[in-house]
Amino acid sequence: AINIMPSVYKCIVCRANLNPDKEINCDECKLYVHTTCSNLSDIELQCLKSKDRSITYQCTKCKCQRKEIRDLVEIITELKSEIESLKKRGANTNDEINAEEIIQETFERQRRSCNLIIYNIEEYHSEDKETRIESDVETAKEIISQISTVSTTDIHVTRLGRPNNVGNKRPLRIAFKNPSDVIDVLRNKFKLKSLYSNSVSISADQTPRQREYLKNLRDQLQVRLANGDNVTIRYMNGVPKIVNVPKK
């Protein structure tokens, strides 16, 4: 909505004083923003000025919050689907899962959604910790850049587990800023096979419950394959499921 407010109000984007003649407010949080900071076109601004307008304006912060809510709902739906699938197959789901456990699992999955795990990467053995970290970061950037165009400028790299004997290879956890970067890399991980044969692999950073679900699913897949079923595991709406392989 277009409003005329005192100049003491500040733009939520640039924090400068608002121009009383050129300002809009978010229909969600009711805070104000310069039209030049709103990323709206002239036509969109004209529509907002219309008395009988049917569109609403949401600031960037409110849009992000709405997306976070949608992401949470998606994770909860995914989790419930996994639980029901396990129950139908008679798998051990550690009894009933209460609401608190679902909430904890939901936030844990959301936290891990920005992470990737890379396996079978040689460790640079040095007494200097910073040198080891720098080596891991450069290795991770090189691998990711070979299969994806996502930015690796701000990634955070950590070795999982305690330092061990020479020759052992602890997994690398790569933390991105956005889950979309993780999805892009996972979609292109098949390219690793031609680059590293089967020596290097990448997976999502799954919770113990996700790993339990996938293990049960793979066990079920092996049983069905042994019985002659032409099936495989495919991800449907983010949930891995056993599906029939279409006949050629």
UniProtKB/TrEMBL annotation:
It comes from Photinus pyralis. Residues 62-96 form a coiled coil. GO terms for molecular function: zinc ion binding. This is PHD-type domain-containing protein. PROSITE patterns: ZF_PHD_1 (PS01359). The keyword Glycoprotein does not apply. The keyword Nuclease does not apply. Keywords: Coiled coil, Metal-binding, Zinc, Zinc-finger.
